[in-house]
């Protein structure tokens, strides 16, 4: 049981560290690299560095609202 | 109320710093535009990292779990003798 917890925790920290390094590379280091370096093909165009977090934030907000709405509906159904 | 004022003051200070950075152009312009987005993403990453590390280091106390189960059994017996329904369904 605690092994599953440890595995999930390890996976979460790995995901967060990889997202952080990828984003740091993308936003800070990549403008300094020449445009014909081989590493440029591993990164999307720079506009996506803004679009993807904004899109993820909007999706998160929508999911939050849906969750709140579902909870309110369920509580109202239980009371009636 | 005080907490909201504190949060708003912090937000105003950070945005003033950002607009000041924009005007005086200490950093290159493209970097200054991306700075708020970068800080939000890194804050989210930091939160996720703390959650992961906390999950990994969570202490389980198996000895206390056994004692707790014994306490639950004792309490159920006690309450059943007094006539309270302890079948455990909602």
TrEMBL record, chain A:
Membrane topology, record value: Multi-pass membrane protein
Stretches that traverse the bilayer: 7-29, 49-73
GO-annotated cellular components: dolichol-phosphate-mannose synthase complex; endoplasmic reticulum membrane
Subcellular compartments: Endoplasmic reticulum membrane
Annotated Pfam families: DPM2
Keywords of the record: Endoplasmic reticulum, Membrane, Transmembrane, Transmembrane helix
Gene Ontology biological process terms from the UniProt entry: dolichol phosphate mannose biosynthetic process; GPI anchor biosynthetic process
Function summary: Regulatory subunit of the dolichol-phosphate mannose (DPM) synthase complex; essential for the ER localization.
Quaternary structure and interacting proteins, as annotated: Component of the dolichol-phosphate mannose (DPM) synthase complex.
Family: Belongs to the DPM2 family.
Name recorded for this polypeptide: Dolichol phosphate-mannose biosynthesis regulatory protein
Species: Morus notabilis
Automatic annotation (TrEMBL), chain B:
UniProt keyword annotations, A-Z: Endoplasmic reticulum, Membrane, Transmembrane, Transmembrane helix
GO biological process, one term: GPI anchor biosynthetic process
Functional pathway: Protein modification; protein glycosylation
Cell compartments where the protein resides: Endoplasmic reticulum membrane
Top-level taxon of origin: Eukaryota
Record's keyword annotation contains Transmembrane: yes
Presence of keyword Magnesium: no
Signal sequence segment: none
InterPro entries associated with the record: DPM3
GO cellular component annotations of the record: dolichol-phosphate-mannose synthase complex; endoplasmic reticulum membrane
A Pfam family this chain is assigned to: DPM3
Membrane-protein topology: Multi-pass membrane protein
Membrane-crossing residue ranges in chain numbering: 34-55
Assigned protein family: Belongs to the DPM3 family.
Subunit details: Component of the dolichol-phosphate mannose (DPM) synthase complex.
Name of this protein: Dolichol-phosphate mannosyltransferase subunit 3
Species of origin: Morus notabilis
Biological classification of the source: Eukaryota, Viridiplantae, Streptophyta, Embryophyta, Tracheophyta
